Structures are given as C-alpha cells and as structure tokens.
Amino acid sequence: MDYEKEIERLKGRIACLEQTIRETSVPIISSIVNHTILVPIVGYSGGERFELIRTKVHEYISKHPDVNCAIFDFSGADLDEKDHAEFDQMAIELGLLNNTLKLMDIRPILVGFNPQIVRKIVLAGIHMDFETYGTFRAALKVLLKEEGRSLKK
User: Fold this and answer.
1) How confident is the model at residue 82 (pLDDT cuts 50, 70, 90)?
2) d(Cα 29, Cα 36) in Å, to the nearest integer?
3) Domain presence at residue 11
4) What's the CATH number where 130 sits?
5) At what angle do helices 84-103 and 47-63 cross, to 10 degrees?
6) Total number of domains constituting the chain
7) Do the strands 36-43 and 29-30 form a parallel or antiparallel pair, or are they unpaired?
8) 62-76, pLDDT tens digit by residue?
9) What percent of the chain has pLDDT over 90?
10) CB 136 within 8 A of CB 75
11) What does the alpha-carbon distance between residue 90 and residue 107 come to, in Å, rounded to a whole number?
12) What are phi and psi of 43, to 5 degrees?
C-alpha cells in the first residue's frame, strides 16, 4: 500500500467534507413575510462561524436583491457556556453583521435569546443596538402587521 497516496486521498476527502459542512452550516430560508429571510443559528457561534454567516447572507442577498429583511434566530445557538470575553466577541461580530446589512438597506432582526443569555449580556455590560424579539413568531407578527397582514390560528 502506498501510504503517501492514501494520505493525499484522505486529505482530499477531508477538504470535500469541510466544504460540504461550510455550505450546509448556514441555512437561509425564505419566510412567509415578503422579502424576508430566516437564518437559524444552531450550535457553535464563534468568530469564524459569524464570518461564514456574513459571507453566506451577503452572497444570498446579492442573488436575491428583493430581500429587505433578515431574521437571525439564536434559539438553537450554543450560548450557555460563553464567558465574558466570548460575549464581547459575539457583540463585535453581531455589530459587524448589523452594520453591513444596514449599509445594504437590509433590516436585521435578532430573535431567540433566552432570558439566561440576555441576563449574561446585560451583566457583561455589552451594549447591543439591534431590533430584537423573543421569538421568530413575534418578529413575524410585527412584520406581517406592518404589511397589513396577520397570523391566524
């Protein structure tokens, strides 16, 4: 067996799988609200993940210029174990996301922060100037109301 060829084959396979992970780790979903997308943030939420999120959202928006609102849902994000420094970094990353979208005339909305995470953010003294709602459903209700529509049971 030629170990060097096998190592190269496995490196190629790893690179292919890493690309698949990058492509699928930031799903972007059309919403029932016109011109609005949902970006669920699930699992790890570090700096490189936010860079990937920004990149994927910008790519999506460049292909879909009718989008004027992006809702980022953090209800599935792994935020419980973050320390003060990680919240500072998250605030910086969210600020970058917020500012770039606003410069592109996209309305960013953040949803899904649980009370424990909100308390940690506030106690850390982190100022975050974002439009936020407790849940995706609450954000949808506001957006639909602005369109003169509503969610019906």
Assistant:
1) low
2) 9
3) no
4) 3.30.750.24
5) 10
6) 1
7) antiparallel
8) 999 999 999 999 888
9) 40
10) yes
11) 19
12) 80, -140
CA nearest neighbour of 134 among 153, 151, 117, 152: 117
| 105 is a domain residue | yes
Alpha-carbon gap, residue 40 to 131, rounded angstroms: 16
Answer yes or no: is pLDDT of 109 > 70: yes
Nearest to 53 by CA among 63, 67, 39: 39
Is residue 48, in this structure, part of any structural domain at all? yes
Among the listed residues 152, 110, 105, 104, the one whose alpha carbon sits nearest the alpha carbon of residue 129: 110
Instruction: For residue 132, give the amino acid letter.
Output: T
The pLDDT score that the predictor gives to residue 59 is 92
The one-character DSSP state at 52 is: H
Question: Could you tell me whether strands 69-77 and 131-133 are parallel, antiparallel, or unpaired per DSSP bridges?
Answer: unpaired
Q: Quickly state the pLDDT bin for 42 (edges 50, 70, 90).
A: confident
Which element (helix H / strand E) includes 111?
strand 107-111
- Residue 129 resides in a domain: yes
CA dist., res. 89 & res. 21, Å (int): 23
Binned at pLDDT 50, 70 and 90, residue 83 comes out as low
Report the distance separating Cα 26 and Cα 54, nearest Å.
10
pLDDT at 97: 87
Q: Which amino acid is at 75?
A: S
